Structure of Succinate--CoA ligase [ADP-forming] subunit beta:
Amino acid sequence: MDIHEYQAKEILSGFGVEVPPGALAYSPEQAAYRAREIGGDRWIVKAQVHAGGRGKAGGVKMCEDDHAIQKACEDMFGQKLVTHQTGPEGKGIYRVYVEGAVPIEHEFYLGFVMDRSSQRVMIVASAEGGMEIEEISAEKPDSIVRSTVEPAVGLQEFQAREIAFALGVEAGLVSQMVRTLMGCYRAFSELDATMVEINPLVVTGDDRIIALDAKMTFDDNALFRHPQVAELRDKSQEDPRESRAADRGLSYVGLDGNIGCIVNGAGLAMATMDTIMLAGGQPANFLDIGGGATPERVAKAFRLVMSDKNVQAVLVNIFAGINRCDWVAEGVVQALKEVQVDVPVIVRLAGTNVEEGQKILAKSGLPIIRANTLMEAAERAVGAWRNDLSQATRMRAVT
Ligand code: GDP
Ligand code: MN
C-alpha cells in the first residue's frame, strides 16, 4: 500500500527525520490560510498523489504570495496529474500540501528497499539527488552507494557513518545524516515498509539536513499489525477495480488486454497469463480467488471481472487443492445465471472433486466451453475471443 507524501513525512518525522514545516489543504482558500500559519515569504504547493515525478508534471509550484498559492491550487484541484509514474490516465488531485520553502545547498538521493537477492533491507544513496534513481543509475552509476543491513542487529551507527562518509557529507553534518538514516531504517522495519524514498534529501543554507520529499510503501500482508498505517489508505488513488476487489477480500490486478482470468494462487495466475500470451492473446486482468473459495466467492469474482469493459472472454483456471472443483463450478453457474455474461466463458478445472465439477458445468445447460489442460483452455479462450470479434465485425459490416 502506498501513502501520500505528507503522511510519509509525518511518520518519518516521528522517527527523528527533519522535514519542512507544512500543512494539508482541501481548497485554495485553506491552502492560503495554511501558508500564513506556517509563516515566511515563500511556499511550495505540492499535489498529493500516489506517484513521483510531480515536479516535472506541474504538481509542485513555488509561490511567493496568497494570490500565487490560490492560483496554483486552482490549477491543481480536481485535475488528473499525469507523471511518468501514473500511466496515461493520471491520478486525481484532491489534497495539496503547503510547505515553507527551503533554500537548497545540496541534494542527495536516499532509498531503502527490500533486496530480494540478499534477502535484506538495502540502503541505496547518492550525492546526485534531484534526479530519479533510474536517471542516476543510467548517468552517474558510480555515485550510487549501496549497503545492506544485517537483520539480526539492524542498522548500526558505524554503518550509517560509513554511508555518510561515502556520500561525502561534511564532517559537521555527519551526525545529522546518521540520525536521518537511523530514523528511516527504524520506520522501515518497525512499520513493515517495503520502500522508503527521500528524493531529495537536502542540505540547507543554514546547515540542516531536511527531507524535502518522502515516499513510503507498506507490505499489505502486514497491515493488520499496524492499524494506524492501514487507515492512511486513500482509495481515490487506487485503480477502482483493484480497490473493489480488495474490499471483497479478493486480489485483482488490472491489465491492458481483453481476456479476463479467474484463478487460484498467484503462481497459477502467472502461468495462466503466460499461456494466454503463448496462444496469441492478452490478459485483461487476473483475479485470484485464493484457497477455499465458496460458490458465493466465485460468483463475486465473476461479477468483478465482468465489470471490466475490456473483457471479451473469461478464462477460469482452477487447480483445486484446498479448493473444491464442485464449489467453483457451482459459483460459475450461479454467476452466469445472475450476471449478464455476453462473452465466451472457458473453464478448466483440475484437482479435488474435478468429476463433480465437470458434471455441474455439463448439467447447467449454459454455453460454457470446457478444457482439460491449461494450453487447451488458453487456445480455446483466444480462439473464442477472435471468433466473437470477427462475428461482431461482420455484423457491423452488414448493418
Ligand atoms: P516529485 O517531483 O514528485 O519527486 O516532487 P518533489 O517533492 O521531489 O519536488 C520536486 C522538486 O521541487 C524537488 O526536487 C526540488 O528541487 C523542488 N522543491 C521541492 N520543495 C522545495 C523547497 O522547499 N525549496 C526549493 N528550493 N525547491 C523545492
Ligand atoms: Mn521527489
